[in-house]
């Protein structure tokens, strides 16, 4: 509050900013944790993920595994995803959370997530219908490497704003943002064939002689020809 020319003025503070901060807090926690794990290899290993590092966001977090270039399934999921679908979601494709008409758009984004790799941030809105209240959501996906080194896992976080209402709740895509990983480092695309490896040079080895099967009409050189003689004399 201040006084100017004898007029009292009050500063109005909007509560919307604080509400958005609370709504997005779990997503920011997961993002900060993933960023802290990014090292020289840029994309962290799946085995480096420790649930204690995102304790405040566990109910909103999940892990997915790539099962084809454009498809991933949920491996581990927090309770919030179970609440949204009204059932256990582990083992289900991630696309089950999306409206059918938006699954192709999700597939394109997943291809970038794993193949570039990249970070995905997707703004969502819940499908409308009887008993389904307005529901906004934010989804973030952060790539991870398997123990074999390929980028085939991802750490995700899905937060929603509004009443869940009747389940299952599926989402339509509003916007998709694809960002490079912190160093912008690109990994070999997982769907590209591995280039052929040239044979190692041979050392102190003779060339293999071709094998020719001997003709039954001609004996092998230096070996007596064997004949079967049948005698019917008793």
UniProtKB/TrEMBL annotation:
Q: Name one Pfam family in it.
A: PAS_5
From which source organism is this entry?
A: Thalassococcus profundi
The organism's taxonomy opens as: Bacteria, Pseudomonadati, Pseudomonadota, Alphaproteobacteria, Rhodobacterales
- Give the matching CDD domains: PAS
Going by the entry's taxonomy, the superkingdom of the source organism is recorded as Bacteria
Span list, region Disordered: 180-234
Q: What is this protein called?
A: PAS domain-containing protein
What residue spans carry the Low complexity bias annotation?
Answer: 200-210
